[in-house]
Design brief:
The complex is a heterodimer of chains A (about 120) and B (about 120). Helix content of chain A is about 0%, strand content about 50%. Chain A has about 120 residues and is mainly β. Chain B is mostly beta strands and about 120 residues long. The chains are: A mainly beta (about 120), B mainly beta (about 120).
């Protein structure tokens, strides 16, 4: 069975600084990987996903993530954050070809951007 | 398109009371699901449906019932509420139930407190 680890429960950062949110996963098969964002008092919204092909995936709002198979990681990055990026970010993994019932979410990382 | 809508936004129940959380989507999605979100635990799948008349259990189904009489609606019933069911509940939907590579669209959530 898959599992997802988001080691950082909270990441404080100043506006315009770069940020990396870490995600590691474990699975015995090929996977799909996702990052979702949850703004305060809202539902989750898909930021980006890795299905296959290029290991560098670009998403909305200037975020990108890199799939590293050897390190089983899918870290999320942004070169310059804004106050509006303050939110909770969830990494998720699913076995390739599996249905949504196999999608496993991490525990989330709260990004706090201050001026 | 309203997307995925959930009612109510907030609810307080006493132990032993019953209630139904409503979820509707207007995107003609086949797949619908219910998650609960608890601090430090990410999202956990309660029940899901791959089409009208078809439902199945997720990771944490105990204490919850669902039905799917139409494509649009997927209500979640708490038969006898317990304090352990205090949580934020999210409904989600997706076009194709067969593969998790599709995006899931989430509702805004229902914050439930059981006293």
């Amino acid at each position: 069975a898959q599992s997802v680890t988001q080691l950082d429960s909270q990441v404080p950062v100043f506006e315009e600084a770069p940020v990396e949110l870490r995600c590691n996963y474990s699975s015995s098969v090929s996977v799909y990987l996702f990052w979702y964002v949850q703004y305060p008092n809202q539902g989750l919204q898909l930021l980006l996903k890795y299905l296959s092909g290029s290991t560098l995936v670009k998403g909305i709002n200037g975020f990108e993530a890199e799939f590293n198979k050897s390190q089983t990681s899918f870290h999320l990055r942004k070169p310059s954050v804004h106050i509006s990026d303050t939110a909770e970010y969830f990494c998720a993994v699913s076995d390739r070809g599996a249905g949504f019932q196999k999608l496993v979410f991490g525990t989330g990382t709260r990004l706090l951007v201050s001026p | 398109n309203a997307g995925v809508t959930q009612t109510p936004k907030f609810q307080v129940l006493k132990t032993g009371q019953s209630m139904t959380l409503q979820c509707a989507q207007d995107m003609n999605h086949e797949y619908m699901s219910w998650y609960r979100q608890d601090p430090g635990m990410g999202l956990r799948l309660i029940h899901y449906s791959v089409g009208a008349g078809i439902t199945d259990q997720g990771e944490v189904p105990n204490g919850y019932n669902v039905s799917r009489s139409t494509t649009e609606d997927f209500p979640l019933r708490l038969l006898s509420a317990a304090p352990s069911q205090t949580s934020v509940y999210f409904c989600a939907s997706s076009r194709d139930p067969q593969s998790s590579y599709n995006e899931q669209f989430f509702g805004p959530g229902t914050r439930l407190t059981v006293l």
